[in-house]
Amino acid sequence: MPLMRFGRTLLAAALAFSLVGSAQAATPRERQEAAVLSNKAKAAARAKRHDEAADLLRKAVSLDPTPQRKIDLARSLVELSKLVEASGLLNAVANDPSASKGYREAAKKQLAQFESRIPWLSVHVAGAPSAHVEIDGKQVTADVEAPVDPGEHTVGADADGYNSGDQRVRVAEGEHKQVTITLEPIAKAPPPPPPSGGTKAPAIVAFSVGAVGIGVGAVFGVFAFDETAKAKQYCDGNKCPAIKEVVDARNKAIENGNLSTAAFVIGGVAATTGLILALTLGRSKSEPSDSEKTAITITPYITAGDKAGAAGIVGQF
User: Fold this and answer.
1) Which of 4, 102, 222, 224 is the most buried (most CB within 10 A)?
2) DSSP 3-state of 242
3) pLDDT, tens digit (0-9, with 9 covering 90-100), for 69-96
4) Cα of 11 vs its chain's centroid, Å
């Protein structure tokens, strides 16, 4: 598997560079402290307290990173199944030109005893063209195997416009496993609901006609009272002479009274229609088009002359 061998070589080179390149000469005091820690670590390792031994040796290596301390730390890490960290330490010693041949060979020999036990894990992302992939919180390249320790790991992936995904996966020693994570697009917000109420234009027009009708009725009512008052000027109580002035005033009063009554009826009908339209059209689910709005018409009519008193409403809704 060329890809796996390439990844292993790259890992070893990177760890070796970081560990060797960062080493600095220890001071006498640091060497003394490191020696004390190393002795305590050896005692802990003999007692099978490998966690304690590893912690002590990490501190010792940070103070005085000798090849022997790295080899000892790697041995404790292998006992804890932390194979990736142990492999990095031993590769660092094996590739350290300042280390003696004996240390380099010892590191290679110890590495060969467990290197085949290191599991390799890759993550394939489906559903998204490109994604950010992590194993245990560390970024990795999708579809490229990465070394991991045996046991459980958390793999995750996320991409712009997609819901993130993660899985818990267990790998055994020496296993090569690929995990597939399918990312789903983030659901778009639903469009806003249509307006709950319909147009109020018919109701407004009807109310307007009602107001006009009531206003016209009031005007003609005033005219009727004026004509009646003129006729009574010639009357004695309820007795009125049959003269032209009285007859004309009485006829005009009757005509204006009929028109006033008709206008009041139209105004009342229009106002009632407006109320009904306001209540019913308020439940409409959608607004009418512009052409529908312009088609709403209400036209009152009042006749005079021989057909005085005839009135009504002509409309299109």
Assistant:
1) 224
2) coil
3) 999 999 999 999 999 999 999 999 999 9
4) 39
